[in-house]
Amino acid sequence: RGISREPSSRWTEPVCRSCTCQGGQVLCDAVSCSVPCSHPLPAPAGGCCPTCTGCLHEGVARAEGDVFSPSDGNCTVCICLAGNVSCLSPECPPGSCPSPSPADCCSCNPEKCNFRGRTYAHGARFSLDGDDCTTCVCQGGEVECSFTPCPMLDCPQHQRQLGPGQCCSTCRDPPAPAGCFLDDNGVEFPVGQIWSPGDPCELCICQADGSVSCQHTDCVETCPYPIRIPGQCCPDCSAGCTYMGRIFSNNETFPSALDPCLSCICLVR
Fold it and tell me: How many CB atoms lie within 10 A of CB 19?
């Protein structure tokens, strides 16, 4: 192949053939592989012989020390050690067994339960006679009973109640509000009470559910010189006139503050 080889030298061709140079001739034979394991892995890339650093089981490569179950093995457990696969199957007791295996490894029947004159199959759930708050279950010939779990309640103890025929307590409905309590000034108003919170143009009412509903009054001024009365929301156009900070009644005459020779009169129109 265009390469010079020394006498008695050995080399491996890419097609897994072992060659040697003897007396000017090249002698080649197929590479002989010694595989000391039962489930070797295929030869790695560039190699000719299978390797025992893992296992090939049912077409699946397993790492050294890997524990697995075969696809058709009923609860059989296998392990890969030095290229060999060793499998173990569970030993099943004869006749009935105390509890069923999770994967039905054994062909045994779980033991039934005899409880208060009745026979229950394994896994059966039932309640005691006249006590629906207790749940029992048959487990491999033994009956285990427990109280029905109750949900957590978010109400205080004095608001809890246990009704007839109930297993768990419930929260009583909160009492209906008797009025509206204002946190800002600590005043409580009865239901239906109407009051002003400070602004004469705003009125509030205490609702039946304990909430407060407020409404603001918009005033419409119908005269050019309305009179604002303290504590009253809207200005009054029929009470008289305001002049220089003073209030004059209708048809009242008064001197002008600008010219003492002038006389003024309040006319409500």
Answer: 16
